[in-house]
Amino acid sequence: MSTLKTLVVLAPQPDPQHITDIAHLAEAPHLDHPGADIVRMRGAKAERRQEVIALCHRHGYDAAYIDNGKHLGDFRLLVSDMDSTLINIECIDEIADIKGIKPQVAEITERAMRGELDFSAALQERVALLAGLPESALEQVYRERLRLNPGAEQLLSACRRLGIKTLLVSGGFTYFTDRLKADYGLDYAYANQLEIVDGRLTGRLSGEIIDAVAKKQLLMATRSALKLKPEQVMAVGDGANDLPMLQEAGIGVAYHAKPRVSAAADIAIEHGGLDAILQLYH
């Protein structure tokens, strides 16, 4: 694979001076404008990547250094987190809202996603607070509150068209991952199993917890089963528990992520939707 890079800048309303400044900082000799909202800077020097990406983000642009000649179809597996990545909500927070305890649960969720709390312990603490809720609360959240994030349908459609397998791996719950898998034609889905007895949540989980290590292991196992190379795998996530799988993938994409996740990922989408991936890898 070529080590030459193209800096791709996604700018919905590009300021010509901003583009000139970015190209100068990146030392990019060739600029292409394949669309009104995208600029490809061929020959950009990756040595100043952090400065260049920071400048783009300050202007409200998403940007990434892409290997020359790399296309979306070169990936054969897309691995995605669910909550706040593929979908617009944190499901556990919305379930808690139905019980009237969303602020308490959401605060724990936020800290866990920033990596300030042990994920497994924080999950068990939050699930315990849901004890007694009827199973119908899960259906209510799925039907009334859960939506795909902007660009998700376009990304999944492109994956189906190109024959890219899709793996949804979540620290959330199987109730939601299983329905998303069925509704949107995903190939694989893994998450935590809420224990339900007599139609009510017990406040406990069944089986192994899907934490950061498990997410990485599921990526590796699926990659191996499909006989893929690391560079054929892209992973997308937003929380600290996604970091190991993002780093294990050939390309790790942070989507509207916590700062430490964005800093560690190969690509950080801070402004656009998930369809930004389609623009980066045309």
UniProtKB/TrEMBL annotation:
Its cofactor is Mg(2+). Belongs to the HAD-like hydrolase superfamily. SerB family. GO terms for molecular function: L-phosphoserine phosphatase activity; magnesium ion binding. This is Phosphoserine phosphatase. It catalyses: O-phospho-D-serine + H2O = D-serine + phosphate; O-phospho-L-serine + H2O = L-serine + phosphate. Pathway: Amino-acid biosynthesis; L-serine biosynthesis; L-serine from 3-phospho-D-glycerate: step 3/3. Its EC number is 3.1.3.3. It comes from the Bacteria. Gene3D superfamilies: HAD superfamily/HAD-like. InterPro entries: HAD-like_SerB, HAD-like_sf, HAD_sf, PSP. One of its GO terms (cellular component) is cytoplasm. GO terms for biological process: L-serine biosynthetic process. The keyword Magnesium applies. The active site is at D81 (nucleophile), D83 (proton donor). Signal peptide: none annotated. PANTHER family: PHOSPHOSERINE PHOSPHATASE (PTHR43344:SF2). Keywords: Amino-acid biosynthesis, Hydrolase, Magnesium, Metal-binding, Serine biosynthesis.
